[in-house]
Design brief:
The protein is an alpha+beta fold. The protein has one domain: Jelly Rolls (Sandwich). About 25% of the residues lie in helices and about 20% in strands. The protein contains 8 helices and 15 strands. An 8-stranded mixed β-sheet has the order 2-3-11-8-13-6-5-4. A 5-stranded mixed β-sheet has the order 1-10-9-12-7, with no helix packed on it. Strands 14-15 form a two-stranded antiparallel sheet. α1 crosses α5, α2 crosses α5 and α4 runs antiparallel to α5. The longest helix has 29 residues. The structure holds 2-oxoglutaric acid (AKG) and fe (ii) ion. Fe (ii) ion (FE2) binds next to loops. The site of fe (ii) ion has 5 residues, from loops. It comes from Microthlaspi erraticum. It holds the Pfam family DIOX_N. It is an enzyme of class 1 (oxidoreductase).
Length: about 325
């Protein structure tokens, strides 16, 4: 069979019978997942603050139960995503984002950082222009679908703020200690779809990365695929727990905490028999011209700041230049106070 190297449309990945060369990754033994699991934290637990703080320090990722998000709402966003990704490639491309950073359909934003392509298509909901795309995709049902998205954003925002307060409290500070917290920008939703793949052991759904904002609330359908990296252990699969949501700590939270909590390196693997949907809500950051730095109350003579102040736009620019080396780019060489 001739190998398919060109002309692969991400909207059609699920129909391919062979893995195109441009999608073939090289893996080594250190890529195998080990038998461990991230903590599952019940938000009703009386020790919730300590449990969250410990999970952030050791993993940078955990699952939460009793989070208060109605299951019906999660199911609605999941079925909206299924309807979208089930459409023909041509139809989906009518809703393509004009620029990688804004709303619309397309391949993962970090595609340029990897040699090989990722087995993933997605739809980003970043600004109000997503509604125009919804109108193109669903001329009759678009009001209903926009309503579901707006409700989901509202619920996610409340949950993310609660988690932020609790985790800050585990560090001995409060939201008021972040100067710009009152002007937090809205979160971004990323709907991800990983179609069935003819050779999952040689393909990658989403390459290893950290999320840039404060934290991400992730719903993965009942299909596993998410893996997180832990220095001492290696890759660990985050097995779906019914009703639980996954939390990934992002770069900005790591910087604010002066390196006390981890931003977790994670990736998504794919599957030969079932496609997978995930819904990521990436939350928390200031306006682009605001300076970000470790929280003043955390640093002092005993614990000097390990990162220099940079504007949020500058950090994002650095991240999109050097990717996984962004912390090194803002690290203070000889921290003193
Ligand atoms: O699909 C997943 O499990 C991971 C998604 C993710 O990491 C992202 O959208 O940033
Ligand atoms: Fe991510």
């Amino acid at each position: 069979m001739p190998s398919i190297t060109e002309d692969v449309s991400i909207g059609n990945l699920g129909s391919l019978q062979t893995l195109p060369d441009s999608f073939t990754w090289k893996f080594t033994s250190s890529d195998s997942a080990v038998e461990e699991s991230v903590p599952v934290i019940d938000l009703f637990d009386p020790n919730v603050i300590t449990l969250l703080g410990d999970a952030c320090k050791t993993w940078g990722a955990f699952q939460i139960s009793n989070h208060g998000i109605p299951q019906k709402l999660i199911d609605d966003v999941e079925s909206l995503s299924k309807t979208l990704f089930d459409m023909s490639s041509e139809r989906k491309l009518e809703a393509a984002s004009s620029d990688k950073g804004v709303s619309g359909y397309g391949e993962p934003r970090m595609t340029p950082f990897f040699e090989k392509k990722m087995w993933c298509e997605g739809f980003t909901i970043a600004d109000a222009s997503y509604a125009d795309h919804f109108l193109t995709l669903w001329p009759h049902d678009y009001t209903k679908y926009c309503g579901i998205i707006e409700e989901y954003k509202g619920e996610m925002e409340k949950l993310a703020s609660r988690l932020l307060s609790w985790i800050l409290s585990s560090l001995g500070v409060t939201v008021e200690d972040i100067e710009w917290a009152q002007n937090m920008s809205r979160g971004v939703i990323r709907l991800n779809h990983y179609p069935v793949c003819p050779e999952p052991e040689r393909a990658m759904g989403l390459g290893a990365h950290t999320d840039s904002t404060i934290l991400t609330i992730l719903h993965q359908s009942n299909m596993g695929g998410l893996q997180v990296f832990r220095e001492e252990t290696g890759w660990v699969t985050v097995e779906p727990v019914p009703g639980a949501l996954v939390i990934n700590i992002g770069d900005l939270f790591h910087i604010l905490s002066n390196g006390k909590i981890m931003s977790v390196v994670h990736r998504a693997r794919v599957n030969q028999t079932r496609s997978r949907i995930s819904i990521a809500y990436l939350w928390g950051g200031p306006a682009g011209d605001v300076e970000i730095k470790p929280i003043s109350k955390i640093v002092g003579p005993v614990e000097p700041a390990i990162y220099r102040p940079v504007t949020w736009n500058e950090y994002l620019r650095i991240k999109y230049e050097v990717f996984e080396k962004s912390f090194d780019a803002i690290r203070v060489v000889n921290p003193t106070n």
